[in-house]
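User: Structure tokens for this complex, please. No commentary.
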Amino acid sequence: MTRRTLIYSALGLLAVMTLFPLLYMVTNSFMGGAEYYRYYGNLPQGLSGRNPMHLIPEWITLDGYWEILFSRPQYLVKFWSSLFLSGTILAGQMVVAVLGGYAFARFRFPGRNAIFFLIILLMMMPLQVTLVPNYIVLEQLGLVGGYAAVILPGVFSAFGVFLMRQVMLTLPPEMFEAARLDGAGSWRALWRICLPNCKSGLAALAILSFADSWNMVEQPVVFLKDANMYPMSVFLTQVNAMRPEAGFACGLLSVAPALLLFLRFKDEMVMGIEYSAVK
Amino acid sequence: MKRFTLRRREALTGLGFAAVPLLGFAAFYVVPFGITVAKTLSGGVSGFNFTGFSNYVSVLNSEAFRLAAGNTFKFIGVGVPLLMALSLGVALLLNMRLRGGRRIRGGDGFRAAYVLPLVLPTASVILVFEILFESGGAINYALDKLGLEPVNFLRSPNTFWILLLLFIWKNIGYGIILMLGGLVQIPKEYYEAARADGAGGFTCLRRITLPLMAPTFLFVTVISIVGAFKSFREAFALAGAYPHESIYMLQHFMINNFARLNYPRLSVAAVLTFLVIFAFVLVLFLRRGKGGVAE
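Assistant:
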């Protein structure tokens, strides 16, 4: 009994730690401006004699939500440009990842191992290593300053190709053999056999990719010239740009899309991540 | 002859599917990287004036670069093993059988909870971490109440550990899921046989679990290093472009040199980072026969 309690407490404690920030944002998003200042106004200055940890607001208001949804348009504008960027990147990444993963998982061709080595290398490379090279090419193509400059390099994700290859390798070869004997070509096998059987892998890729591009800061700052075009992720780092009581509500607005995807596909995501490790 | 053509057809089809991704990787990563290498060997703002390795010498001698490289190594060297140990520990707990052979209940819920931080945008949750760790934050308030000295978490050598905590908070779920995926694949019979021979829990862990988990460890290492490099976003959200020197990373060095239009320095840092990762991936790849990442 005690051992059991101990295990559940340890697991539960970690769950509290991973869930806490989101929970805190939800409750605090109903806080008004004055209360916000009273508790968080002088955090960097030092102790104020008051515990800033403040889970339940004293006075529940919808001011923050009013501010971001109706009062001023900039929050929603940022939201939609983020959604546009992440959605487009996601769609492109899925196509690239499925094509690449299929090629590496199911076909032998000269240079396959060398190219796959390159893909792992790309996957591990920190973004900053390729940021300037990217910039140079985008400038040559005349794309710097437009959303295409952020979208195009994002679409070619080495991680996506890697993940889909891993997922497709778990499918039994007999399945494809049977499809071939039935006269299905490679495209048909991809559509009818392969993709319906990697739904969890696709869901995992979708949510990981979406969360990643929704979060991007460096690419928009470097590739977009006009600050008005910056997505939500950059806007959120410019704290002075918004009224403080809107901070939590705005944070939640920016959490919402990824969170909804997550709540819908969390089991698939877990399965997809699991698959990614199986050879 | 038939065999030959079949192979050829397979190769052509495979390359056909790979064509779009490969062209994209070439256009946005491989070719530009070639340009970057050329830039490191050249001086001045424009044109190509061959200057040998003087840019490398200058960067390697610069204090900012040494600090950044040292911090990045330290962050990965401490953070990745720590993350792996913690996620293995939690995975072992989740995989444990209680008395009577019953499994832990709510395992799916726990896993989903642990992986949630991965999808939360950094910038939106950073405020919560500031409320916890700022000078006047909740933890210092608690320390003060206990009669202890307040700690400077965000602008001191401690910042390194706060960033490490954020890294673990964000990535532990991914690690746990991968570790658990490896654990459930170990046949139960191995443990039963070992138990029958009188082996204790610790011996089982050392002789069965750890060796058989080697491929999983390798993969978690790769994913964790990718995650560790992404921790720059947390560092940036927490402290901006010029943070305390304990979390001044290679990415800060590169971004700041970009802002100052100092492309040769930036390119040298990029190429050096590339070389280190290249060496690491090469080792992984050559080991793949022994259960590596790219089997």
